[in-house]
Design a protein that fits this description.
The model is unreliable at about 1-50 (pLDDT under 50). This protein has 14 helices and 13 strands. The longest helix has 19 residues, at about 225-240. By secondary structure, it is α/β, with parallel strands linked by helices.
C-alpha cells in the first residue's frame, strides 16, 4: 500500500500490474535521412510518442476484406464496401466506463471515461486515418502522405496498407519515436526531414501538391472530413448516455480532436437528439500549447509560441505544438460552450496515468490524461454541480 498526491487531497491506492507488449509482423520499409539521402535500417531515437495497439490481430481479423479492398481488378464499389466493413468492425465503439473509484476519491458524481486505446493502433488517430484512406481510395489516389511524430503515422500507414495504398511518412529528424518500427513494418516509406513537426507538415504538403498525392495532414482541404471522423466520439458518448454530459474534457495538441467532438455534439443538438451542448474542456502540457495559452490569456485567436522556448520530454511530446494547426477551431469550441482550458505538468500526467491504471484498470498514455487533469483541477478549485462528465483518454500506453 502507498500514498500518492494528485493535487489535494491525498489518496491511498493499491498497485495492480497490467501486462504489456506488442507483437509485430514483418514487412519491408525504407528509412531515409534527408541529410544523406541513403537507406538505413537503424532507428536512431527512442520512444517519445509511444502508444500501443493491436495491429497484428486487427490485420488478421480483416484479412478477407483487405484482399478485396486492395485488389484493383475488383470494382471500386466493392472495394469501398469492403473497406467500410473494416472501419465498422475495427475502428471506434471504444471503451466507455464509469470511473466510480475516482469519483469517490475526488468527490465528483458520474465521471465517465471514453478510452480510445481500443482502436487498432491504440489512439483516436485511427478514426481520421481510416476515414482519409477510404476517401483516397474513393477519389482514385494511389499514395497518401502525412507528417507525424509517431502515432498518426502508424495509424495512417495501417489504414493505407489495408486499402492497398502506398504511404509516405515524414518524421522530423529531431523526434524520437519507437513507433517508427511499426510504420516500417506496415510497408510505409519513411523520410526523415530537418526541423520540427510543423516543418515536416509543410514538406509533406508540398510533396502532395507536387506529385498529386493524397494529403492527409491537418489544416488542409480535409479538415471537415477529419472533424466529422472525430465527431464519431460524440455519437458514441450519446449512444451511452442518451443525452449530452455537462462537460467533455480532452487533451489538445493541434486541436482537431476537441474541435471534432464539438462538431459532433453540435450536429446532435441541431437534430434534437440532445437537450444541451456540453462544455468543452481542453488540457495540454504546461505552457506549451497555443490553445490553452490563448484561452488563459483571453486572446481572440491562437498565437504561435516560440519554438526555441519549448522543452520537449518523453511525457509531453504528443501534446506540445508551437503552432496548433486547428487551434482556432478548438478555441472557438471552448468559448462557445462556456468551457475552459488548463495546463498539465509532466508529473501530474504520470500520476494520473498511474491513478487510472490502479483505480480503474485503464493503461492510458500519460499525455492523454491532460483533459481529465483540467476537468478535475476545476472541480478542486470550485466544486462542479452533480451531473455527468466525460473525459476522453486518447491513447493506450505501450
Amino acid at each position: 500500500m502507498f500514498t500518492l498526491a494528485i493535487g489535494k487531497p491525498r489518496y491511498l491506492w493499491q498497485a495492480m500490474a497490467l501486462p504489456s507488449g506488442l507483437p509485430l509482423f514483418s514487412a519491408k520499409a525504407i528509412v531515409m535521412t534527408s541529410a544523406q539521402n541513403n537507406i538505413s535500417t537503424t532507428l536512431p531515437h527512442e520512444s517519445m510518442d509511444g502508444a500501443f495497439g493491436e495491429i497484428e490481430q486487427v490485420s488478421q481479423n480483416v484479412d478477407q476484406q483487405r484482399r478485396i479492398a486492395a485488389d484493383q481488378s475488383i470494382s471500386l464499389e466493392k472495394r469501398l464496401e469492403a473497406y467500410e466493413d473494416m472501419i465498422d468492425s475495427e475502428v471506434g465503439d471504444t471503451t466507455f466506463v464509469r470511473a466510480r473509484n475516482i469519483e469517490r476519491d475526488i468527490g465528483l458524481r458520474q465521471l465517465y471515461l471514453k478510452f480510445e486505446g481500443g482502436n487498432p493502433t491504440g489512439t483516436q488517430k485511427d478514426r481520421i486515418a481510416f476515414a482519409q484512406a477510404m476517401d483516397a481510395l474513393r477519389r482514385g489516389f494511389d499514395t497518401i502522405t502525412v507528417a507525424t511524430c509517431g502515432n498518426f503515422g502508424v495509424a495512417q500507414a495501417l489504414a493505407a496498407s489495408l486499402a492497398g495504398l502506398k504511404c509516405i511518412v515524414y518524421i522530423p529528424e529531431i523526434y524520437r519515436t519507437r513507433r517508427i518500427q511499426e510504420i516500417a513494418k506496415l510497408g510505409a516509406e519513411i523520410l526523415r526531414v530537418p526541423g520540427d513537426y510543423e516543418q515536416a507538415v509543410d514538406v509533406s504538403c508540398r510533396r502532395a501538391e507536387q506529385d498529386e498525392l493524397y494529403d492527409a495532414n491537418p489544416g488542409g482541404n480535409n479538415t471537415m472530413l477529419q472533424l466529422r471522423a472525430y465527431g464519431g466520439i460524440s455519437d458514441e458518448i450519446y449512444d451511452e448516455l442518451r443525452d449530452a454530459p455537462q462537460a467533455v474534457a480532452a487533451p489538445v495538441s493541434n486541436g482537431t480532436t476537441l474541435a471534432g467532438i464539438y462538431k459532433g455534439f453540435l450536429s446532435l443538438y441541431r437534430r434534437g437528439k440532445i437537450s444541451r451542448m456540453p462544455a468543452m474542456v481542453a488540457g495540454s502540457s504546461f505552457g506549451k500549447n497555443p490553445i490553452v495559452r490563448a484561452f488563459l490569456k483571453n486572446r481572440p485567436d491562437c498565437e504561435d509560441l516560440h519554438p526555441e522556448k519549448i522543452r520537449e520530454t518523453s511525457i509531453n511530446e504528443p501534446l506540445i505544438n508551437w503552432h496548433s494547426i486547428d487551434g482556432d477551431h478548438a478555441l472557438a469550441a471552448i468559448r462557445e460552450t462556456k468551457g475552459w482550458a488548463g495546463n498539465a505538468s509532466d508529473k501530474n500526467m504520470r500520476l494520473y496515468a498511474r491513478m487510472l491504471r490502479e483505480r480503474e484498470g485503464l493503461d492510458a498514455l500519460p499525455a492523454s490524461t491532460a483533459g481529465l487533469i483540467a476537468l478535475i483541477a476545476r472541480h478542486q478549485q470550485n466544486p462542479l454541480p452533480n451531473d455527468r462528465y466525460v473525459a476522453v483518454l486518447t491513447g493506450r500506453k505501450s
